[in-house]
Specification:
Blueprint lengths: L1 H31 L6 H19 L7 H23 L4 H23 L15 E4 L2 E4 H23 L1 H11 L1 H6 L4 H23 L9 H16 L4 H21 L6 H13 L17
Antiparallel strand pairs: 1-2
Helix pairs in contact: 1-5, 1-8, 1-9, 1-10, 2-3, 2-4, 2-8, 2-9, 3-8, 5-6, 5-8, 6-8, 9-10, 9-11
Length: 294
């Protein structure tokens, strides 16, 4: 029983951070119907940003989280204005190749700047690295990262539900043509959506680095995880991302305990099964993946 509690706690904490990492991907898809294949590289940027803030300024990733989010938001605006704005009304294949090309550029740029070394951040002293919780023991870094993820997701949902710009983002995601007719500035709304989506992604990278290594191709692993979370929770359903992340975290933790060699394969198997038998996910709206900008 103690082992089950321990595995469940570890899976939930891991899944919460996975959900934060995938939320930006799902938010961008829900609003702009763009599948961002450079998503993992933006998370990698957040990890490197957190590392260098710690290395150069002595600022741990949790205190530096607002700066990482703001930097990611600025990158998101540049991403929209410099690339997506010119491909958003084109075919899906154009968007795929554009974002995939950006992914390769960012990976190789990181390799040139930072080499292939594995980097991480030590936040807590070894004696404080584990704490007792609900009859089990959890990593302090995983717990704090989970709390950051929950806070960031709650604030994002409040922003979307309670502010004018948030409601504009919802309107554009539901019907772009109708949103334009009622006077919503589409370009501004999409730029804010990309700022929010990429900001959340870099923030996720920042809170992940105490538990994971940063290296140039780390995004390739996390982009697959994010796609599984998004498909599991439902394309275009931002709230469902949290459930998808926790479910994946639990599955990965239990599979890793029973058969460590199958842990990585779990992501591929889940993605194939979901696309084959449950393409709308657990909470997705039927046809959401086929909707496009008009």
């Amino acid at each position: 029983m103690e082992v089950l509690i321990q595995l469940a706690l570890s899976g939930i904490l891991l899944g919460g951070v996975y959900a934060l990492g995938a939320m930006g991907l799902n938010l961008i898809f829900g609003v702009a119907k763009v599948v961002n294949f450079a998503h993992g590289e933006f998370l990698m940027i957040g990890m490197y940003a957190a590392f260098w803030l710690w290395k150069l300024a002595g600022l741990d990733p949790y205190w530096g989280a607002p700066l990482i989010f703001l930097a990611g938001a600025a990158i998101g605006v540049a991403f929209y204005l410099g690339l997506i704005r010119y491909t958003i009304y084109r075919s899906e294949m154009t968007q795929v190749f554009a974002t995939l090309g950006l992914s390769l550029v960012l990976q190789n740029l990181a390799l040139m700047l930072f080499s292939a070394d594995y980097l991480t951040v030590q936040v807590f002293e070894p004696a404080r690295e584990s704490i007792a919780l609900f009859g089990g023991h959890v990593s302090s870094t995983r717990l704090v990262s989970f709390l950051f993820a929950m806070a960031a997701m709650a604030l994002t949902m409040l922003f979307i539900k309670r502010t004018y710009m948030g409601k504009a983002i919802e309107a554009v995601s539901q019907d772009l043509s109708a949103a334009r007719l009622v006077g919503i500035n589409i370009n501004k709304t999409l730029a804010v959506a990309f700022a929010l989506g990429i900001g959340l992604t870099t923030l996720a990278g920042g809170v992940l680095i105490p538990s994971f290594y940063a290296y140039p191709s780390v995004g390739s692993s996390f982009v697959l995880i994010s796609f599984v979370v998004v498909v599991l929770g439902g394309l275009g359903n931002v709230a469902g991302t949290l459930a998808g992340g926790i479910i994946l975290g639990l599955i990965e933790t239990f599979v890793g305990y029973l058969e460590p060699d199958l842990k990585e394969a779990t992501h591929f198997v889940l993605l194939i099964l979901l696309l084959s038998f449950l393409p709308n996910g657990l909470f997705g709206v039927k046809g959401a993946e086929k909707e496009g900008l008009k």
